[in-house]
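Hmm, how's this folded?
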Amino acid sequence: MRKLEYTFKTDTLFKMLFVEHQHLLKKLVAALMGISATSITQFDVQNPEIQPENLGDKFCRLDINMIVNGQRVDLEIQVCNEGDYIERVMFYWAKEFASALPSGASYAELPRTMILSILDFSLFDCEEYQSFFQPMEVTRHTVMSDKMGFHFFELPKLPEKISGKDELLLWLSLFNAETEEELEQIKALEVPEMEQAINAYYKITASPEFREAERLREKARHDEAQALHHAKLEGKLEGKLEGKLEQKYEIVRNALGMGMAIADIARLTGLSKQEIEELR
């Protein structure tokens, strides 16, 4: 099997492809939200730009923020489970929700705000690959508000067999594809949106704009990994030095307790007379 150099989970590709082909993005969002694309009468991407200077920032998010029929909708891909993903999406939801209130407006005017997360890891202890959460009363299961919602789609849980009739599964299988053969299998189902998305994939991944964006993105990942590696080494070294210093302090305390002269203790430990006096 010919492994793909880039997949639909590559965040730079994801952002460039779906911002450039917003008719495909509209179909994808409709499938993820469980609504028909024809029911979407308002569809605006709020952050279409990819700022080159931000691609080198490890905190840069290549999500797609939209207004869909008056709702705020944020779509992102998450490849690695860093252990705090739920708290992270709740934080981003809170920022989106709070920033939607114009100055002097009533709280009732706050829009429905949804987070759509396509995950390349298993997040919940269940077999279902799709989960939707809203705040509700725990015993009566009464929804407190429909203005808060989180959709999660866990790619490792997708079934092996797909058909051209399940639009959601088709889109998720596209993101889950790791080889050229898998893309060709999806394309062979002759679903127009899938064919268009795959053709756009090959066109964008061959473009110099994408290659440069991905180079900057990869450099940011490498720099972050190097920084973490050095931080760990420095932490280990600092811990060893602190341990050795504590051992010297213990020797000083014992020597002082035995009545040894400060000059002798200084020669024994390598500490200055002032340091020993402070310990005393």
The mean pLDDT is 86.
